[in-house]
TrEMBL record:
Transmembrane intervals: 12-44, 51-67, 113-133, 145-163
Alphabetized UniProt keyword annotations: Membrane, Transmembrane, Transmembrane helix
Lineage: Bacteria, Pseudomonadati, Bacteroidota, Flavobacteriia, Flavobacteriales
Protein name: Rod shape-determining protein MreD
Organism (species): Gelidibacter salicanalis
Top-level taxon of origin: Bacteria
Amino acid sequence: MTKETLNIAARFVVLILVQVLIFNHINFMGYINPYIYIIFIILFPANNNRTLFVFLAFLLGFCVDIFSDSGGVHAAACVTIAYIRPIFLKFTFGTVYDYQSIKFNQIDFGSKLTYFSALIFIHHLIMYALEIFNISKILLILQKTLFSGIFTIILCMLITILFSQKRK
């Protein structure tokens, strides 16, 4: 195993544990929940095997579903954002993505915020729509998506800033 593979595996396990042991128990005002585990999908290396990546996204969501007893909503949302991620990588980073040379710790804050926000809001919208699954509660779905999404974006940006490795 390479060092990068071990780092990815460690990040996978740590994010699941932190999510289910800490962040699943945070519930601000009854409907604001952070889901920082999706940072694994957001920061996964762009040049890896796509089939493996979608499978790992499913596994990540499935593990959170098991611990949260949420019936597959996390797995569905994770697989969706893993599948559509190349579109957002190309939209946000353009030609840098074409050459698969994205280094997330070296991109500017605005591009990173745009990329994170798009994937997090899509993840949350799918997850809450499947969780509530009632068109008459569309305002509740949008409210939960907006506020939990903002909270998740703030936490994910802070985590990436705190744990980014500046290479010289």
